[in-house]
Amino acid sequence: MARMTQRRKIHRFHLDGTGTEYPVRFKEDVLAAEEPLEIRIGGRSFAVTMRTPGDDFDLVAGFLVSEGIIRSQSELVSLRFCSGEKDGTQTFNVVEAQLRSDVQMPDTMRHVYTSSSCGICGTDSIEAVRKTLHFDPSQDGLRVPVDILAELPERLREAQAVFDRTGGVHAAGLFRVDGTTPELLCLREDVGRHNAVDKVVGWALRQDLLPLKGLVLQVSGRASFELVQKAALAGIPVLSAVSAPSSLAADLATETGVTLVGFSRGHSLNVYAGRDRLVRPRKAAREEVFAGL
Question: Which pairing describes strands 170-176 and 215-219: parallel, antiparallel, or unpaired?
Fold first, then answer.
């Protein structure tokens, strides 16, 4: 976890009068690390993203799935760190992906900067996503009890080691929910919500698990268009978030057959698409239906 966090000296103010502006001894805080990662394909720069170091090969593999470039483990020949720019030293901030020779490369190499907060720009069309879909989540027969689904945010939070130390990272977790107790298959943390999801999808690709049928992706933040896109391209039938989805995310979920859940807070949740996948719990529960304005 060394590269995932960094220590910084801080001044701490206490508004109850117990602190001082110039303490004799500085305190330290633990911050989530954020560094650039350049992704290269076949020796050419494809994209640069800001991320929390760690699970970088999973991040790159998942990113390539999310871009619709690959869909199986066999299409990804190798991943390796390249030497950094400074004096040829290894910075672990450049990853080279070697793809199988028959994999169709994108028409243009992105060579763009993407931030950890805004996700990957440029794929903002539902039609564009539909054209790159390799799997069809709408055909997934998964059924999830509402009470089991409502447990996932807490189970995700309990497994967040980096968040416990920093309070500054998002998480994505892949759950199997076919029993009475949800099973966490993979958890990844990152300063970027989209990076955390890419790391989970990349882990699954490298384990040769795509498409991710019958599984639920739980995320710690909001559900954006890009997160629904990443779920659909990985064949994930259910995406659940603790915060709000965007309108375009709900539209894309409807179009691709992904069940989209938001504001999942343990005691309640909202379903924005794919209600048919959710099974009412055996214990008493109240369901409200609100028509759109």
Answer: antiparallel
Do 119 and 170 reside in the same domain of the chain?
A: no
Summarised one tens digit per residue, pLDDT across range 91-125 is 789 999 999 999 988 765 554 455 554 444 434 46
* Residue 32 near residue 4, CB atoms below 8 Å: yes
From 82, 118, 121, 186, active-site residue: 118
Q: In this structure, are 116 and 142 located in the same domain? A: no
CA distance 38 to 63: 12
Pairing of strands 144-145, 5-10: unpaired
Is residue 2 one of the residues assigned to a domain?
Answer: no
Nearest to 190 by CA among 51, 3, 39: 51
Check which CATH number belongs to the domain holding 214 and give it.
3.40.140.10
pLDDT digits (tens, 9 = 90+) for 167-194: 889 999 999 998 889 999 999 999 999 9
pTM: 0.87
Rounded to whole angstroms, the Cα distance separating 276 from 280 reads: 10
Give dist(CA 192, CA 189) in Å, integer.
Answer: 8
Closest Cα partner for 218 from 279, 175, 271, 281? Answer: 175
Helix 225-233, helix 247-256: angle, nearest 10? 20
Q: How far apart are CA 2 and CA 118, in angstroms?
A: 26
In a domain, 289, yes or no: no
Task: Based on the residue annotation, tell me whether 118 is a catalytic residue of this protein.
Answer: yes
